[in-house]
Please model this.
Amino acid sequence: MKIITLTLNPAFDVHCMMNRLELYKENYGTQLTRQAAGKGINLSRALVSYGVENTAITVVGTENGEEFLKDLEEAGISYLSVEAQGRIRENLTVHSPDTPETRISFEGFQTDDGILHQMKNLMPCDADTIVTFTGRIPMGISKQGVISFLKEIKETGAKLVIDCNSFTMDELLSLQPMMIKPNQQEISQLVGKELEPEQAFELAKQICEKGIDHVLISFGGKGMVYSGIWGQYRILVPEEEIVSTVGAGDSTVAGFLAGLVSEFPPCDVLRLSAAFGSAACLTPGTNPPVKTEIDNMFTKIRCNY
Model:
């Protein structure tokens, strides 16, 4: 089974580490890192860290795309790219021990629906392919254009995995992806009310009955809820000291795919998914989860039918 990750909205993730953050004062950083990112790229990084082959297809800006692609090469990520005029955006995250993460996001290049046709021409899709679409739709590209693009991919027989908060529930159901993975905030927005894990089971079951094979809803430290063709599961994760939550959701999707293509039993696929996401919280910045941490976390995660 081939895995292709799509990134329409790439970014450079810039992480500033500080001993203390004080508002309205001059602050001093202790470390600064800069990495090629975007949700699809984060997913590819996590898969590569676990030895799972995949290809990242991404848009890059003409002004700083060379730096971005060089970083992918150094990370061992196989990629194909198309160019858009302008710069790849930057996300700045400030980390200090005594305050929550603070993120500042900048806008990058603008493009149009034509870039979707260029990406489609790069994609060797068939029934043996899983294609992930993650992250928000960037400025300049229409939602209807993306929906048509994804339907064209489905027509090749490829299986879609979607983790994107740009779609309504009706739009997701029209795409009939193999899997969706909203988090607590996203699923609550989709249904218009705050949901806890116990309430999410019935909703996930209803979504599955409308044609989506796997519905995985993440609740951070409360674990995950799964409903799908394997039944219903509650996945419980251990309490750990969080270093950074950046990329944890992407890693959760990566873990699910890693288990799926490795033909793990259903419960182990879900445990591996949670292990990827939990291990990602133990690494700084956009760094992917470490394999030894994933394997260690896997032994601690419970999956209840």
In short: Residues 226 and 232 are 6 Å apart (CA to CA). Residues 266-280 form the longest helix (15 residues). The chain has one domain: 2-304. The radius of gyration is 19 Å.
